[in-house]
Write a structure and sequence with these properties.
This protein has about 250 residues and is of the alpha/beta class. Helix content is about 55%, strand content about 15%. It has nine helices and seven strands; from the N terminus they run E-H-E-H-E-H-E-H-E-H-E-H-H-E-H-H. The chain is globular and about 50 Å long. Strand 1, helix 1 and strand 2 form a beta-alpha-beta unit. It starts with a strand and ends with a helix. The chain has one domain: NAD(P)-binding Rossmann-like Domain (Rossmann fold), CATH 3.40.50. The longest helix is centred in the middle third of the chain and has 29 residues. About 40% of the residues are buried. Strands 3-2-1-4-5-6-7 form a seven-stranded parallel beta sheet, with helices on both faces.
Amino acid sequence: MKAVVTGAGSGIGRELARQFSALGMKTVLVGRRLEPLQMLAAELPESEIFQADLGEEDACLRLFEAHRDADIVVNNAGFGLFGEFTQTDLHRELNMIQVNVQAVHLLTKLYVQEFVLRGRGKLLNVASAAAFMPGGPLMATYYASKAYVLNLTRAVAEELHNQGLRHITVSALCPGPVKTDFDRVAGVHFSLHGLDSRKVAAYTVKKFLRGKRVIVPGLTMKLARFFSPFLGDRLQLRSAYAIQHRKKSR
């Protein structure tokens, strides 16, 4: 079996690639930076590097054409940005939308169509616990992008289920804070203690291979997801702003 993992150079993507390799799968390691991909490839047998910036549509198309035979696809590449919406850099935000939304949509579309032709395949889109929130003050574009990923994933999964395509699964991973490079890139410091990326990956792969549609690692995020509807949108938004604003002051 072959597993394609985007954003494989660090964090959850790297650990997911290790998990799939440990199960005896060939891995295709996708990312922008060559050095971390080379370091990971050196430790994983039967691994291949595909260096690309998935913010470019052509890169997504090239990835699909080169590895359309993949059995498993993980759309993990993405990043965040912290700050007031009126002050954050527009070009950085547009690039985030290209990576977090456009690339995920494009690769989901192409690979699910391919899976339908074959009658089998598994796809995992990495969203975030942020996707369950009504919005994300001070991280507005990031939260919106992850809500898109979660809603797209759930809708496609339901369509496939209703078509009786039981050997094709589309899942969303929605973690809370994880110990990765995310906060450094986004320019934010989370108040919650981050989960270990290796444990998140191990839990995710177990649930993903069983066909779980929405995967939420960690008890804290499970409880937050359960109780959030009782708080109402306005209270959640006010609370989110207060929490995020404290990060800004650090």
